[in-house]
Amino acid sequence: MAERNVGYVNLRILRENARMLKRKANAKMLAVVKANAYGHGAETVATALHGEVDGFCVALAEEGISLRYAGVSLPVLVFSPPLSVEEASRCIRHDLTVTVDGFTPLKRVLVAAKQMQKQALVHLKAETGMHRMGMEKEELHAVFHTAIAHPLLRVTGVYTHFSCATDEAFTKQQYERFMHMVTPLKTAYPQLLLHAGATGAIAYGSRFALDAVRPGLGLYGYGTTGVSPVLSLYAPVLRRGAITAGERLGYGAPLFAPCRYALTRFGYADGGLRSGGVFTPRCMDLSYLPDQTEESVEIIGKNKNAEVLAKEEGTIPYEILVRYTARARLSYVN
Fold first, then answer.
1. Residues near 271 by Cβ (< 8 Å), separated by ≥ 6?
2. Exposed, middle or buried by CB within 10 Å (0-12, 13-18, 19+), for 111?
3. Which residues contact 270 (CB under 8 A, 6 or more apart)?
4. Is residue 120 within 8 Å of 148, Cβ to Cβ?
5. H or E segment at 215?
6. Which of 239, 243, 303, 319 could pair with 247 as two cysteines, CB 3.0-4.6 Å apart?
7. Within 13 A of 230's CA, how many CA atoms are on the CB side?
8. DSSP string of 227-256, one letter each residue
9. Kindly report the CA angle at 323 between 277 and 252, in degrees rounded to 5?
10. Half-sphere exposure of residue 212: CA atoms within 13 angstroms, side-chain side
C-alpha cells in the first residue's frame, strides 16, 4: 500500500495534447507551466515537452529559475513584471524573458542590466480589455521605443491576454484592439513575437493565434475539446468501518443512516475543500468516503476527473489541479 497520496502523470498524453493544440492553432507554442505545471510537476513536464513546444511561461522568476536548474534551455517568459531591481537581476542572470508593463518595471530591468552588463530579454504587455496588467497604445509605443534604443535591452515580443475566450465577440474586439496597437511595431520589427491566446482561444483555430499561443489548462487535459486528462490521483485507505442506526461519524457528530465507510489519507491540507467530504466535513488530513475493496481510493481519475470535481465543489478545474496534489508524490509514466 502507498504510504501517501500518489499522483500519476501520463507524459505520453501530455505530449499528445501539446501536439493537438499546436496543430489546431498552427502557431508556435509557449507552454504554461506556472504553479508547478498546474500541480503536475513543472520541471518534469517541461523536460517532457522539449521538442514539442517553442518555450515556456511561468508566473514568477523563481519558477523560471527552477526550470533552468532542471536543464530547460528553451525561452522562458515570466508573466509577473519585476517588483525590484533584484528580481529583474535574477531573471537576467538565468536568461528569463521579463514582462514589462510600464516605465517603472522597464527602469528596474535597465538598472539590473547595467549592473550586470548583460542584455535583458523583454516582452511588453498590452492592455486590451482585461485591466489586469498592460499598457495602452501610447505608453506601449513609448516604452517600446525607449527599450529598443538601449543595447542592453532586447525586446523580443509583445503580448496581451484574452479575458473571456468563450465570448467570441469580445475576443474579436480584444484582438482588433491589440492589432491596432502592435501593427506599426510588427511592421517595423517583423521578428517580434505576438501572442494573446491561451487554451480557450485555440478553439478558434488560427483565427486569433497570431505568432504563438500559450496553452495551460489544455495541456493537462481540460478546457477544450480533443484533449485528455494527464493526472490521476489516489489516496491510501487507512481503515474501514461501519456505523449502525443512531451512531455518529466525524467532526460535528452528524447522524447518518447505517453505512460502511473508508477512512482515507486525504484532507483539506491535501487541497480538498473542507466541505467536500461525502459523509461529513473533511478533517485536515483525512476524509470519510464510501467503502470499497481497493487499498487506495481514486480522488481524480476516470470515474471523476477534475472538471467533475470542480462542478461538485463550485469551482474550476484549475483550482482542483493546483490544490489536490499539495502533498502528493508524483509518479511519471510513459
1. 320, 322, 323, 324, 325, 326, 327
2. middle
3. 5, 235, 285, 324, 326, 327, 328
4. no
5. none
6. 243
7. 34
8. ----EEEEEEEEEEEEE-TT-B-STT--B-
9. 25
10. 24
Give Cβ neighbours of residue 9 (< 8 Å, ≥ 6 apart).
40, 41, 44, 45, 230, 231, 330, 331, 332, 333
Pairing of strands 76-78, 97-100: parallel
Q: Which element (helix H / strand E) includes 308?
A: helix 306-313
Work out whether strand 231-243 and strand 55-58 pair parallel, antiparallel, or are unpaired: unpaired
Q: Quote the pTM value.
A: 0.93
Q: What is the DSSP letter of 192?
A: P
Cell numbers for 6, please give them: 500518489
Give the span between the Cα atoms of 218 and 294, in whole angstroms.
Answer: 31
Cβ atoms of residues 162 and 208 within 8 Å: yes
How many residues in total does the chain contain?
334
What distances in angstroms separate CA 7 from CA 192, 228, 230, one per listed residue? Answer: 39, 16, 10
d(CA 126, CA 140): 7
At which residue does the C-alpha cell 499539495 appear? 326
Q: How far apart are CA 319 and CA 86, in angstroms?
A: 30
No. of H helices and E strands in the chain? 10, 14
User: Residue 143, SS3?
Assistant: helix
- Grid coordinates representing 221? 487535459
pLDDT category at 290 given cuts 50, 70, 90 is confident
Write down the pLDDT at residue 293.
79
Quick: pLDDT tens for 225-272.
999 999 999 999 999 988 888 887 777 766 677 888 888 999 989 988
Q: Rounded to an integer, what distance in angstroms lies between the CA atom of residue 283 and that of residue 39?
A: 22
pLDDT digits (tens, 9 = 90+) for 49-85: 999 999 999 999 999 999 999 999 999 999 999 999 9
Beta strands in 126-163 (DSSP E): 153-159
